[in-house]
Request: fold
Amino acid sequence: MMNATSALLVGLLLATIAAGCSSGATAGSASRSPGSPGASAPARTGEPGGRVPASEAPDTGVIGGGGGVPGGGGPKLVFPKPGTNNPRPVPIESIEANVQGRTVTLVATWWSGVEPCHVLDSVAVEREGNTFTVSLTEGGAGGDVACIEIAIQKATTIELGELPPGQYTVVAEGGMTEPVVFTVG
Reply:
């Protein structure tokens, strides 16, 4: 039988876990519909400006060794899984442009929590002239789950496809990281 002190401690522990999983949720997240001015369809790995179904996007785990992010390292490579609960924008820590010939792939990294409480919902890329604006949205996968509150670095790839020769700039929506400038020859 549990005494009053033990019951209180268990109750506080459960309340802390429940509050941690819902602490990042916001009631009113802004979103753009694909037909609205300035909006674009989310970019997905595999098809420039298109979508890859979540069932076809492998979750390969930690980048490095087998490499998805040049230079190896520690970010966990993740792919968008649309339809999360309480989607909200996440600040991008860094963006790297990889140019091979005229084909450009971006790697965006950010800090987040563990799944299923923090899941990449979508990647949006807007283009205006030679400037690309990238934004990431995360949400929860749903269900009555408890997630450990630790920060992990995540990364995702964004295919810009083939671009004509010229100089281009990539910025993170909200200006949380320095713009990236690259040249396609």
